[in-house]
Specification:
Domain Penicillin-binding protein transpeptidase: 357-618
Number of strands: 23
Number of helices: 25
Largest sheet: 5 strands, mixed
Distance between the termini: 115 Å
Domain Glycosyl transferase family: 66-254
Mean pLDDT: 87
Structural class: alpha+beta
Keywords: Carboxypeptidase, Cell shape, Cell wall biogenesis/degradation, Glycosyltransferase, Hydrolase, Multifunctional enzyme, Peptidoglycan synthesis, Protease, Transferase
Low-confidence stretches: 1-37, 124-128
Family: In the C-terminal section; belongs to the transpeptidase family.
Strand order of the largest sheet: 2-1-6-16-17
Helix content: 40-55%
Radius of gyration: 36 Å
Shape: elongated
GO molecular function: penicillin binding; peptidoglycan glycosyltransferase activity; serine-type D-Ala-D-Ala carboxypeptidase activity
Strand content: 5-15%
Oligomer: single chain
Amino acid sequence: MTVIKSVAGLGMAGALGGVLAAAVVVPAVGGAGIATRTAASTLIDLPPAPREEPLSQLTTLLDKNGKRFAQFYEANRTTVPLSRVAPVMRRAIVAIEDARFYEHAGLDFKGTLRAIIANTQAGGIKQGGSSLTQQLVKNILVENAESEKEREAARAPNIARKITELRLALAMEEKYRKDDILERYLNIAYFGAGAYGVEAAARRFFSTTADKLTLAQAATLAGAVRLPYSTDPSLGRAQRARLRERRDTVLDRMAGLGMISQATATATKRAPLAIRLRPEPGGCAESAYPYFCLYVQRELLSNPVFGGTRAERQRRMARGGLVLKTTLDPVAQRAAERAIAARVSAADTEVAAEAMVEPGSGRIRALAASKKFGRNAGDRDNGPHTTFNLAADVRHGGGMGFQAGSTFKVFTLATALKQGWRFDQGFKTPGMFVPSEGYKNCAGKPVNAPTTKIYNASGEGKGGPHSLSTGTWKSVNIFYMMLERRVGLCNVVETARSLGVARADGAPLREVPTFTLGVNEMDPLTVAGAFAAFAARGRYCRPVAIVEIVDREGLRTRVPPSCEQALERDVADAVNHILSGVFSQGTMKGQSIGRPAAGKTGTNNGYTSAWFAGYTPDLAAAVSLGDIRGSYRYPLRGVEIGGQSYGQVQGASLPGPIWVASMEAALRDTRPTSFVHPDMSRFGGGHTPGLAEALAAEKRAEQREASHRRHFRKLRDNYRQYYRWLSRRHRPDH
């Protein structure tokens, strides 16, 4: 339909229509003939209808069982077809915004005539008069804007913008049916209280859906569109009073147009607003599992799998409307949260964090921390909350991480086994070691540290002869410094890199002699992902949080795991064999999860941080602990954590118990799986000079200590018996 025909269809002459159109869009032109010609060229030679980007909607996150646990969005909107909007809502919005919507072709001349008078008197755009289609065009231009400048231009109260808006509205009328235009308008309009579109507004204002709106509710929402901020019912009584006035105006208008009777309007106006505000859907901060939600959000922004450029990924996330099936396991998540909360208080400056990863797939099962996610009162740095994703790296919202300590010894262990070392092969170690020679980084540059003195950490082994097995079980620093030099620093670094090791802050790994002692700052997820590769017999899988994306059209896209064989299976089996001994003969002796497990404690010199990382064939996890104010300034010595005092915190004293408790609960319904037995013809045996004698002497010392303990207990029991006997003898007779 042409504009001239539509004008005639409204009972107005083409020339008169041109004059009216010219008056609203080019009021500065004096002659009617010139105005008519200008309007004709302006309103007949139409541009294409405006480009319509998909409207911003909620993105929903589902756990591995398909249950929603979070959402994030740029606009709280859920689009619905017109068939899912109550007919009374459609009539109400047309009545108040554009009563002749189904009669005109995009330009309402009566409304325009009213605007002409006001605009001529004001010397600019003072009054609307815009048709519903024109309002839709304005909203589309605002929605499509990619900068604040573009948004301001789309809202600018000037003649040029009105001309553009009108021409695009006429183009839309030629492209779409009236019901299509109404559907688009109802989905794009802002109703207030953070609700975009009629479906979100129905839920937000009345805790219902758009297809179930009553007359009173429909009139209320229709009245809110014109003044969404001053009628926002979530802001207070004054706004609700104005909203009620607008509702009543809509009801009167509907009665005046014959859509409802005056009696119905009067009766409905007597009713209260009956607002039943549903809380605005929260983002990650409101999720039951905020750290996992934040990780997913950052993954969408940073991973090229979800868009070639960051700008493209940002646009996709802003548009939303996605359903993301994630890897989150609520059982594992709760297990991690409870194990941490039982031992570390949210108010403590010492923070614990844990990540759980499924071996063989890289699926992240849990991300937990001792602090609650969010800001502290008064925006204080220290308190029970944090905005850092403590279990993840900086790229995923985390902090700078903590030095990983002795957990890094496993990369030196794996490198030695790759090079043919055997379980019982080793050498004698001194009580102090200076890495003055023999260390080169991967650029071939010497990185010796002749002024550095290395000691064995208290409680983590002593000097003397050690093999791969005993040096690992007792976590002997000097043994591992010397082993690293023998197998090659760069080889150890390359082993770590092949298992996904990267610093939490994104900086290059520090390739220095103390690499094997965990001098690099790490996050629990990266460490858990690396240890999961040992559980998967050398198959490293990049940690993944999203397994499937369903777009707004229902198209499903699977996100496959990204895995590679980083270590020979036999080498990984050998690593598992030695690390299993950490529980039976090493630093975690006496702590068990009741099924085959392997792991490594991590305690830093100076007690700046403490770790435990371990795994079963079914699940891997890493726990870190350090002071959020700065691990060097506030080491883990003489501290009170979770109401318990610690002289110093080691990997086995707090991170270890958290790991044990969380893994027990997370795997409660999983049948135990055993590790593959190592190839003893390749890795068994070996010789360490003096080790047999040292172990025999150690055993005798343990036996003497056990004998002393038994003797002490016997003396204590005898004393108690004597005290009870003495108490009875001196008890007065009654």
